Input
Amino acid sequence: MSTGLRDDFFMGLALDAARAAGEAGEVPVGAVLVDEASGAVLATAGNAPIASADPTAHAEVLVLRAATRAAGNYRLRPGLTVFVTLEPCAMCAGALSLARVSRLVWGADDPKGGGVRHGARVFDQPTCHWRPTLGGGVRDTEAAALLRDFFRRRRPRRTREENLSENVTGFTGK
Ligand SMILES: [Zn+2]
Output
């Protein structure tokens, strides 16, 4: 399978996890951690900060935790890739760097909440000591549509205060 087709396939699994998160009332973002050489999916997760009452329970952090705990090592072995449906925030970019992930592939860009191509640009900082190979824009239309539909459905039930805060904090609020 070519890299492009493989990326599309694994992003499809991340999109499934994002959809499930959205159905559970979380912001629909999903991630998978994959050993590309063998094709093994080591962990799958959707965003879960609300259900777990944990502001750090982003999909990327959850797949890292699952894989490092299973391996009994706080760093990932070489050759692993995280596929995530949305450009990671600064916290997740920092965690991916600390975990030594080899490659990071995301779907939609996140100009308001992202920390890779936008905002803090974590991997570009001299204080960042591990930079994965980066790829963005994989099945980005589908990932963005999931988020757009989620917020569109939620908006009518929101209070004026919540709408104001969304305008300040941005589109994802994940
Ligand atoms: Zn994050």
